Amino acid sequence: MSATPKVYLNGEILDADAARISPFERGFMWGDGIYEVTPCFGGRPYRLEDHIDRLYRSLRYVRIDVGFGPDQMRSETERMLEANGDLLESAPQFRIGHWVTRGGDPFVPAHLAEGPPTVFIYLQKVETGSTVRNLETGVRLSVTTTRRNPPECIETRAKVTSKMNQLLAELDAGARDALSLMLDLDGNVSENSVANFFIARDGVLWTAPERNILEGVTRKVVFELCERLSIPVEERLFTMYDVAQADEFFITSSGVCAMPVSAVDDFLPRHPVPGPLTERLIEAFAADTGLDFRTL
After folding, report:
1. Beta carbons within 10 angstroms of residue 26's beta carbon
2. Side-chain half-sphere exposure of 221, counting CA atoms within 13 A
3. Spatial separation of the C-alpha atoms in residues 248 and 113, rounded to whole Å
4. Is residue 16 a contact partner of residue 125, using CB atoms and an 8 Å limit?
5. What is the DSSP string of 245-281?
6. Which domain covers residue 37, as residue numbers?
7. What is the spatial distance between Cα 16 and Cα 123, in angstroms, rounded to a whole number?
8. Pair 148, 26 in one domain
9. pLDDT (tens place) for every residue of the chain, 296 residues total
């Protein structure tokens, strides 16, 4: 098989550079779609079923019917991966992207757009160098002036392609050479633009409740690993006052698993980076995924 990346587009497996979508597609024009990103570690998808399950929860929320169910989405994903078999062996980490848009006429109300939807699945190599470095030093976060969309406006648990809210937060934080930390409208800590956020205080992990954040798959894994490791976790509202008192901070996402945070603006963790609970989770993720970034 060729090392040229293959993608899935509306039922066909194509060379990536041969895939074509109209610029009049609703997803391009209005961000009218849903997406998922699943990591591949050592050539194996990690938590693919969880990601596809969340994909379909989001699709139901925005009322997009792709015409087939999760089992077929999984089999089409596996077909795309099989077409990229030799490519998967060339690097320790890849990402699988699922993008689904409503399709149809972009200039009619959404309920009149008859589709058909666009379904795009791809595989992309992930450069691991920055992950390796950041696991040692941690990443810096900065609280942004852009607040997280409230669920009264758009449900934060849905993984929608309309990401201007998070992009503005990235621009805010990027001006200070940091990654974002977003608050909700009431000043409670929400999440990073692409990752969930945790703090540790007195041996207990705190994270924002699901109402204020994306329903992270890796966040779900943290809860499972903490139960296995007897680390207590609390979903609760907390503010920057609590961050100022924290022993350690970290973020979680599919691409980095658990990533230590070295500072939130000028608030520093009480423990060295990575902190002891973060270190235990990094080790637990290495065992669970089969890939230890620290050895690359």
Report:
1. 24
2. 25
3. 48
4. no
5. T-SEEEEEETTTEEEEEEEETTB--SSPSSPHHHHHH
6. 6-126
7. 9
8. no
9. 347 899 999 999 999 999 999 999 999 999 999 999 999 999 999 999 999 999 999 999 999 999 999 999 999 999 999 999 999 999 999 999 999 999 999 999 999 999 999 999 999 999 999 999 999 999 999 999 999 999 999 999 999 999 999 999 999 999 999 999 999 999 999 999 999 999 999 999 999 999 889 999 999 999 999 999 999 999 999 999 999 999 999 999 999 999 999 999 999 999 999 999 999 999 999 999 999 998 98
Note the residue count of the chain. 296
* Bridge pairing between strands 257-264 and 139-143: parallel
Which amino acid is residue 212, in one-letter code?
Answer: N
Does some domain include residue 1?
Answer: no
Residue 140 φ then ψ, to 5° = -100, 135
How high is the pLDDT of residue 1? 39
Q: Which two tokens mark 41?
A: 């570690």
**Residue 280, domain member (yes or no):** yes
Give yes or no: residues 115 and 148 share one domain. no
* Amino acid letter, 165: N
Q: In the numeric block, which tokens belong to residue 208?
A: 């924002």
Strands (DSSP E) found in the chain: 6-9, 12-15, 33-41, 44-45, 93-101, 118-125, 139-143, 179-183, 189-191, 196-201, 204-207, 233-235, 248-253, 257-264
Neighbour order of strands in the sheet with 204-207: 189-191, 179-183, 139-143, 257-264, 248-253, 196-201, 204-207, 233-235
Residue 94 CB partners (closer than 8 Å, separation 6+): 39, 40, 43, 87, 88, 123, 124, 125, 126
SS3 label, residue 9: strand
Question: Do 18 and 87 lie in a common domain?
Answer: yes
